[in-house]
Structure formats: C-alpha cells, structure tokens
Amino acid sequence: MTELAARLVLDGATKSFGAVAALGDGSITLYPGEAHALLGENGAGKSTLVKILGGVHHADSGSLTIDGEPMEFGGPADAQAAGVSIIYQEPSLFPDLSVAENIFIGRQPVGRGRRIDRGTMERESRAIFTRLGVQLDVSRLARGLSVADQQIVEIAKALSFNARVLVMDEPTAALTTVEVLRLFEVIKTLRAQGAAVLFISHRLEEVFVCCQRVTIMRDGRFVRTAPVEELTIDDIIRSMVGRDLDALFPKTETPAGEVVLEVERLTSDGTFHDISFTVRAGEIVALAGLVGAGRSEVARAIFGIDRRTSGSVRLGGRELRNGDARAAMAAGMALVPEDRRQQGLVMDLGIDQNVALGSLSQLSHLGLIFRASERKLANGWATTLQLKFGQLRNAVSTLSGGNQQKVVLAKWLARGPKLLIIDEPTRGIDVGTKAEVHRILDGLVADGMAVLMISSELPEVLGMADRVLVLREGRLTAELSRAEADEHSIMRAATGQNLVVSA
Amino acid sequence: MSSDVILRKSGGNTGTPPVDDGRQPLWRSLARWEAGLVLVLIGVLIFGATESATFTDPSTVFYLGINTGYIAIMALPMTLIVMTGEIDLSVASMLGLSGATVGYLWHHGWGIWPAFLVALAVGFVGGALNGLLVARFGLPSIAVTIGTLTLFRGLAEVLLGSLTIPTIGDRLFPNWFADVGANSIPGTQLSWSMLFFIVLAVVFGVVLHVTPLGRSMIAIGLQPEAAQFAGIRVNRIKFWLFVLSGVMSAFAGILLTIQNQSVSYTAGTGLELNVVAIVLFGGVSIFGGRGTILGVVLSVAIVGSLQMALTQMNVSADKQNIVTGVLLLISVIVPNAGAALRRIQERTQRRTKPSTKPSTKLQSQRSIPKEGQPS
Questions:
Q1: Per-residue pLDDT tens digits for B294-306
Q2: Number of structural domains, chain A?
Q3: Considering only CA atoms, which of A229, A191, A192, A190 is closest in space to residue A207?
Q4: Residue A454's CATH number
C-alpha cells in the first residue's frame, strides 16, 4: 500500500463551535482501494471530521488534499464535485420518486424538449447496480424500501457522481446481519474499483471483517492509525477510551424481589398478540427479537403512548389505565424511547430543561417553576451520570449521542421510577459510554429497580439480562433464563429457524 | 428524586464536576427580538410626537386602548396557540358572533348580564368545536379554523341579519355602557379593555414562562412527540387552548359591544389577521415553541401607537393596512436576513481568507426569530 499515492489526506484539521473545540487535530489518510475504519467514542470528533470531509463544516485550520491537490470546500456541492460522497446513517430518499429518479435527483438527464429522459436514467442506474453486484428494481418507488436498500440507493447515487471517496457514517446501525453482509460485499466491490471507503461503526467486530486499516480518535484528536491485523479489540478500546475498560457488561448478581410489572394477555390488533410476562424488582428482563417484531410497540402500549386493544398492565399491583402515559408515570413507570431525537428529547431546549421536563410538577413551588431549580436538578444528575457538556442551558442538540442518552436517563431517573423501560439503550453510542450506560443500569437494578430492556444487540442482551423474552412477529416465542440464553437459542426463537450466527 | 441512588455505582468521577452558574451575559439576554422591539417602539413614539400635533396628548393613551385593547386581548390566547404550533383564525368571527348573540338576546328582551353569559358560553362551545377537530381528530388547525371563521360569521349573520342592535323599537343598551366604553377608568387614561389586557398579559406571561403548563406548551411546539413521551397531555392542552381562545374572543366581542353601544354581525371582520400579525411581530415563531408574552405586549404597543399616530395624521384606514402588512413582512424577513447575512459573510470569509482564523459564525445560523429561550 505504501507505493500507492494517497487518495485523500486530511492533516491537522481543527474546528471550534464558539468556545467548544470539537476537533483539535483531525488527521486521516485514505488510500484508493482500502476500507478504512474511523473509531472513537461519541464526542471524539468523528462526526465533525466527516462533516469537514463532506463540506458541511469548514475547518478553522489544517489542510485537505485529494489526489495530491489541495482542496477548500465552500459547501457540500464542492465536496461532491471533488468526488467525496457521504452516506449518512439515515438515508434521505424521496419516497414518491423511483429508485432511478432518486439517484439522479436534481440532475436528471434530459432529452428532446427538456423532458426527463427516463430511459437513459434507468439504464445508467441499472449499470451502477450491476457494478455493485446488487439486484434492485430501478423503476420501483423508493417508498417501502428497507433501510439497507435505501443505503444501497444512496451508494449508487454517490457512484453516479463518480465518487472517489465514500464516507459511511454508521451504515450498519439499523441493518440485520444478512444486510450487513451484503453491504460488506458492496464495499468490497467498491474497493476493487479503486474507491476509498471510510467506515464508521460502533460495532468493533465489523471493523475486523470489513476494513484494512483503522484510525482512532479521542477527545477531538488523532490517536493512531494501524492495520487491523496489528490490533485486537482490547487495543482499540484502550486507545479509544484512553484507559482500560473494566468490562463492557458489568453484571452484579442481585436476587430478584417482588413482582413490579405484570403484563397480561396484552394485545394490539395487527401489531402484537397475547403478550404476558412479569418483571421483578432487581432484575433486567430483555425483550429481544428482530427489527419489526413489535418490541417497541409493546413498550409503547405498556407505557400508554399507544392504546391497547385488550389485556392488562399492572404496576406494583395497580392496574394502569389504557393509553394514559401520565398515569403510568405517576405509578412509577419510565420509558426511555428508541428515538432520542424525536421522542426522548426536545432538541432545542437546554440540558436543564430537558432533565426537568419529566418532573415539572414536582419541581414547582406554588405552581411556579424557576430555572434555578431545574438547573439544580440537572446539575446533580449531570455529575452522577458524568455528563460531558459545556453549560446546562446549552441545547441538548449540541451534545454527542451518548451524552444525549444520559440526559434522557437523567430525566427519568429524576422521577425515581420503580420500572424503567429502556428501548435500545446504547444504539449509536460509543463503546466507552456504552459501558457507562450498562454500569448505570446495573447500579439501578442493584438498588431494586426493575428494568425492561429492548435491545437488538445480542451481546448486550446476553451480557445484561437476567431473563430474555423473545418476540417474533408480534408473539412471544420464548422466555429464556440467563443460563439458557445464548445466541443460538435467541436467534432460533426470533427467526423460527436454526441459523448459524456469524459476523 | 435524589441523584445519589446510583452515585456509588457509576465509578470514580474522572473529571472535575461541571461548573455552571447558568447565567447569560447581559448583552446576550438583551440582544434579542424584544430589544429590537423596544427600539422600534421608541422610534414610533418619536415619530408620533414629531409628526402629529396631538400625539403627546394624554388622551392618546385612552384612544389607543379603545382601538387596540380588544384586539390585544385576542392576541394572548393566540400567542399560546401559536406557541404549540397551531393557529386559530376564527377569533374575529367569534368576536362577531359573541356580539351578535348579545344583540339577538337583547332584541328578544333578555337582560344584559344573562346575554353576556350566553355569549361567553357560545365562545366556549365554538372554541371546543375547534379544539375537538384539531386535538381529537388531528385535523390541521389552519383548515379547521378557516372553516369555523366562515361558520361563526355566518351564524352571526343568521342571528342579526342586516339589523344593527339596538334597532327601532328596542330598548337602548344600559347607560353604564357609555361610562365603561367611552370613558377611561377614573383618574387614568386607560380604557377598560386596556386594563383587562394588561392584567391578562401578566397572567399569561406567568403561565407561559414560569409554570409547568407553559413549559409543556413550549415543548409541544418544539417537538410534539417528545412532549408526549414525557407524559405531557398534548391533545388535552391543545383542546383547552382553543376553548380559551373562543371564550376570550367572545369576551373581546362583549367589550367591543360595550364600546360601540351597538352591534352588527360584521363587527371585527378580518381582524384575525391583525391578531396574527401582532403575535408574529412580537417574535413568536409560526413554527411553535419560541416567543415571549413580553414581545407580544411590545408588539401591541408598537402597532397601537403607530395606528394612533397615523390616524391623527389623517392617514386613511386602508393605507394603515399597508403599515400592518409591512410590519408582518419585517417580522419574517429581519431574523432570517440576519442568518442569511451571516451565511454570506461566512462564505466570503472562506473565499478570501484561507482558513487561519477560527470562525464562530456557523453555530448560530438559524432561520427562526430568536435564539434565546424564554426562561
């Protein structure tokens, strides 16, 4: 690889937002034909670096060269013109346009009379998919495509720009195992065609399967770049966190106490049927299953965001009113939802106001609520949860994903709930914060809280849960004890068939 | 609510505990939309004082109250509704319907107080209809209230037809109407409607800015789904806001009836746009979640004084509408122009200076009237 000329070199890039230095030394070198992993905790500066590459942010200092040519991007269009394409975690396609139209959006080939030349467009789209080795109908609407297919369309779009550098920001976060493997095949094809792929993921196992070299960042700075063969997962984690992680999944043995949550024959027509289970104080019960099995919907119905068709939910022996989240909260239930940005937080409100949002009536004196009391509450929890932030009044949108999750946790823990339902507790969170969240959960159950955890990550389920409930197509297919639960038993119940699970 | 439950579990605290006194620098809290409004108000007052011979006369305050008070009262619930990301365009029609109800009942021999009560009840029912359609059935408020705008006005016409009440053969409205409607509160230059507005503005300001309910409204306006997940009863709050808007519009209709000492079904036609203009010019974001009652109060003062000055200068009502329109445009353009200017500046900086100077511009680009949150 050394005789090859570098495709892209970013050297010593810095970027500050006001007083906050998001990037102190962003440096990375990409060679043609390599898949390169960019790793770091949340807040390590990965996103900022990516946005500089994509022309979204302009670096305060540092240099960027592509194929030896110095570059200065004035905006995303410049980056695209220079052959750098970014594929974000959540694809943004137009659902009512066809796949081909999405690929050529804004620069459709035109034929006679300035009319869009659909034939050329679809032919070129098909050619790109052939290059990628993917079967996808180019004339179908984007609506209804799986997230994985949408990503493929985004990749095709990037290739139609003749992208020389593809940056994929957590492309695998929402994909199933099979889809991840297909994406890896596509990446391999891209590499063979001489593109440089920058791959960001929090799943370290994937990095070893898919990438040749790794660059690690910490606290906005470049730490090291090395070939994957020379690294172990432990090395990587140590470099990312700057210290040894005691364990990713701390687990204190706690005797289960009395029953806190009783769900009986819970049904929501068309979504899930006849779900019955209990959660005891001092235990973590995991709700596992494939994406779309109805796990989040069960959680929403228990909490009362959605109405249930039939069945009952009891908390501490008390029956909860159907579709009344406020009553559930009053009874001691808390829900940390799946989608932090839409459901968990009001992104434009301050950290303090978000933490206080769940406890407004408790915080008010004579019906009035003052910022000082909100701040006091938030400050206590910020310290407890080791939140990294500038100032408490800063909007939560300025925080990294892991710290945002801590704010959501703080909001609910401030209420002192008996039952915490937590949906994908560590999705999109870096390894260091992940371990912290796990330690927090472990601490909570040790103190007698009951936790219902929904997770798509098997290691998390196996590492944290006392019992595992498996949901398939809206039905409970297995209840496994900690001893019984392993990758095979869970996947068998989740898919209804024997599968060999591999990375 | 104690945070020490899990303190011992979360391991050694590696960093120093975050210090945050949470105070904004003074310039920052002043450099807001409201500060701009104060400057505009001063400008309008100077303009009025120099251009109109009678503007500095104390009675100007009274007439301002007469002209603007009942509109300003409707702007208060409108502020809350816009804060939650909705709008109520039926307010002026409800004002008309309320007056028509009073007139109809008076015409049919009712006492004035029972007639007022029924008018308020009509406001309640009309507001509840809006609220039901918006909050319960999830229909867009702009469409719903355009519908009820026509409906309420139509009902008013059904009640009164072409009559102006009191009409021939009717009793006149009670004498105290003249005292209350055409005279200021003894010893002051305040009209009764202005007094009501001031008192209500304080109440609304407190509710919006320092109560859990107000905070809930802000959260709803910024992110309805997150508000719902935080246990805020989004639909219930919206429903009652529309009811409140209906009742207060009916109340404004009663005030206008007292002031005019007569009613016709056309009273207040088209005023809903003035109300919306006042609210938006006051810095309330049409997208919800941002704005202050203080801004709306300043906006009322500006619009009211400007109107007084122009009236005293014999500028016709039609031409005054142009001023209202321009104000509304300004309230949309200025905040966005600031952001656009910063963008342009940023771009030219980029072109001319090859990346040596740290730039802090990027973070504050936004197309919404204000950056600060009401606190």
A1: 999 999 999 999 9
A2: 3
A3: A229
A4: 3.40.50.300
